[in-house]
Amino acid sequence: MSDQPNYRPETLAVRAGQQRSQFGEHAEALYLTSSFVFDSAAHAARRFSGEEEGNVYARFSNPTVTMFEQRLAALEGAEDCVATASGMAAIMATVLAHLQQGDHIVASNSLFGATINLFSQILARTGIATTFVSHTDPAAWEAAIRPETKLFFLETPSNPMTEIADIRALTAIAKARGILVAVDNCFCTPILQRPLEMGVDLVIHSATKYIDGQGRVLGGAVCGPKKLTEEVFKYLRTAGPTLSAFNAWVLLKGLETLKLRVEAQSANALRLAAWLEAHPKVARVFYPGLPSHPQHELAMRQQQSGGGIIAFEVKGGREQAWTVEDNCRLLSITANLGDTKSMITHPASTTHGRITPEARAAAGISEGLLRIAVGLEAVEDLQADLERGLALI
Ligand SMILES: *Cc1c(COP(=O)(O)O)cnc(C)c1O
Predict the structure, then answer these.
(1) Residue from 203, 183, 192, 161 nearest 306 by CA
(2) How far is the CA of 187 from the centre of ligand 1 (A)?
(3) Given Cys at both, which of 39, 71, 271, 276 links 17, Cβ 3.0 to 4.6 Å?
């Protein structure tokens, strides 16, 4: 497909990266094999040395995984992609491939919880320090830079408050000092936001979320120019946080419907957010696609639409929020996101339950806050499901 660079995302999603075997299968094949056979001793030697391209051992090469990598790279507009076992594995691989003891990261203070723990606990122990700064204040990122700063790390919109980081502004600050910028593009996917086109160096995915989109498997990926992904590949080859062939096959088929799903989920979310905003029992809605969002204009400059995640505050506190949650029959009570089935969660007692009340307050996460990851159900049915609890508070 590299000879046809002008295909549109719809086409790339179903066609990019496919390699057919001698059997001529129409769907992408699932290669469940841990190793590969060579024609001769000399052939094995050529493959191992890298003199000849080809599969060797599934810790670092498998045709099904390669098809997934190439298809995702095409959608992100990336030269290359390295798939990993999970989103966290992708973040770990990116940092350990490019940083070493003594280096420093500047990161958003509203990252995914496990990412904050990875940086502040596990990586800190290896001598890689992180300064967490305001998600929305580029001047704070600039002020946090040290001579040893090697990486800016962010995800946007943030979870659960849907705050937007200005990708172009942060990239400009980093570029001027030779600092790498990595964006976790899990919430938007390449369908709604293409960070590489805004100057970002590496895009990271938890493919577990929208790319699978149907809540089945874990996976991750790092996309970018080959000179940067090559280092990630070397780390993966040796350290082994590899995506399984089966999961790659599920994710490859997930990419085929990514655009249809994400656009429909985002359209559903916009309708549901507008309905919530007009609801007398709702104090406030946080959704980048609504004009009431403080960064609506920035969001619309760097995203195609608002995305599938809504946060809203019911009037009252924890009791009222739990009443809404407990009266849902359709919306699943789970902290995951990106599924075709809508999900509702109370961040203050789940995903953000273990941080201090002060830190929660600073992040804007009140006791009345609920987060919905909007799926593909009829919006009217989701409204009726939420109304049951809202009517009781
Ligand atoms: C879920 C998630 C991750 C971690 O991905 P896993 O596949 O669960 O390891 C990272 N970043 C964001 C934004 C996520 O939502």
Answers:
(1) 192
(2) 9
(3) 71
